[in-house]
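User: Here's a structure from my thesis project, written as structure tokens. My advisor, Dr. K., wants to see whether a designed sequence matches the one we expressed. Can you design one independently, without my sequence as a hint?
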């Protein structure tokens, strides 16, 4: 809140191609706009997600958070039925350095080939 209180000083930039501004506060961003002396805060979030997480996506996440598991399962099935892309349209790419490290670990560690059934996972201690 101190960073917002100190506006317009701070790490503030005008957003490209849209109205509003971005305030950088450590690893977080505040997306806001001004109308005279009135400050409209549109979003606050992690720097990696703030630009891709639209308000519609935030509302969906909020709704799912308060749903019971049965309703979430129904919602997930709707997504799978209507929005999952075809595996036929996925581009083939060369593995990057991270992929190569994972493949090497799989080859050298026999436990990487074993999968744990979901029923055996202790979700409370992960």
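Assistant: Designed independently from the structure alone:
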């Amino acid at each position: 809140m101190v960073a917002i209180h100190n506006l317009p000083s701070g790490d503030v930039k005008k957003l490209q191609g849209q109205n509003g501004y971005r305030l950088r506060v450590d690893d977080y961003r505040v997306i806001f706009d001004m109308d005279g002396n009135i400050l409209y805060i549109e979003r606050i979030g992690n720097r990696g997600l703030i630009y891709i997480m639209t308000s519609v996506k935030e509302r969906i996440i909020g709704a799912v958070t308060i749903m019971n598991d049965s309703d979430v399962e129904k919602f997930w099935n709707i997504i799978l039925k209507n929005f999952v892309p075809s595996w036929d349209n996925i581009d083939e790419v060369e593995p990057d350095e991270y992929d190569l490290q994972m493949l090497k670990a799989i080859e050298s560690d026999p436990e990487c080939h074993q999968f744990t059934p979901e029923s055996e996972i202790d979700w409370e201690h992960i």
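When you compare it with your expressed construct, this may help: Strands lie at 11-14, 21-25, 28-35, 38-46.
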